[in-house]
Amino acid sequence: MKGLAYHGPGDIRYESLPDPKAVDKRDALIKITSCSICGSDLHILHGHMPASEECYSVGHEAVGEVMEVGSAVTTLRAGDKVMIPGSVGCGACRPCYEGLVNKCENGGVRVYGIGRGLPGCQSEAIVVPAADFNAIKVPEGITEDQALMLTDSLPTAHIGCYNADIGPGKSVGIIGLGPIGLNAVEIAMVMGASVVYAIDLIPERRAAAAKLGAIPLDPANAVEAVREATKGRMLDCTVEVVGIAPTTDLAIALAGQQSTVSVIGAGLPRYDFPMVDAFRKGLTFRPSICSVQRFLPELTELVRTGHLHPEQQITHRMSLSEGTEAYRMFDKREDGVLKVVLKP
To answer: I need a labelling partner for 307 at 20 to 30 A (CA). Which of 1, 162, 235, 322 fits?
Structure first.
């Protein structure tokens, strides 16, 4: 089959990959119909996740059609349209039953195309382990684009907002307005935030957030603007979506007394934490990884009923064979790119 593979920093190629083969009776073979590039895929592109192999396939956001199922798979059959959540658990332990895939007791959470434990989804087909748990039928009323955003992007934004303690009447800052950040803006509104400040270097992304009802701010003057608007109280909740030290510093600077900072940008191997500020503010600081399955039922319903619109972040559609160019464009943020959907 064909797919995208990592060969070193800055080098992702469309090429022939080993054909996937189901080896366990709980496996399902899925034909990929759509996949997409996530911001965390750029950490691989930039070489921040060193490879233990010369080359490996990438990608962890995909939807597809069931081709074959193992003898122990009970909820799926050939022809079913499925979402493939990026987080993969055993589906048989108590944490997995609760949707807490990151606490899976049988090997921990795995992610397609990250850590070399599972092949990536930016390919023509993939084997899904424990398919009754890790491949979910696309519900009626959900489009393929919406289903694709539900495999990682929207749940990641949601866990960021959930762990920021956003609720009715809270003031919120979202730092980083890529697809996940813009989804977080909309989720914060649905959660009842009284005001959402949307912060990014790129004017076009700030404008997109403003259309969702947020107050757009440039990072250079965000602290002063929020201090003036809140009469020095600063914010109740802040979500950092970028994953670099300056934006994490900014999130803490925007935090008010007894506030919560949620970090879902996953690019920092280490961080020099400002403990004095944290003590002074009584800060709650929560780095988060996403267990997609945890909130998928309620997010699916919010999308189906029109409360959330994650498909609005899709700006480009390209062939999987154009994957090298898609990564280059996404990395350089060219042509107003937000979310790129790739079709095998």
So the answer is: 235
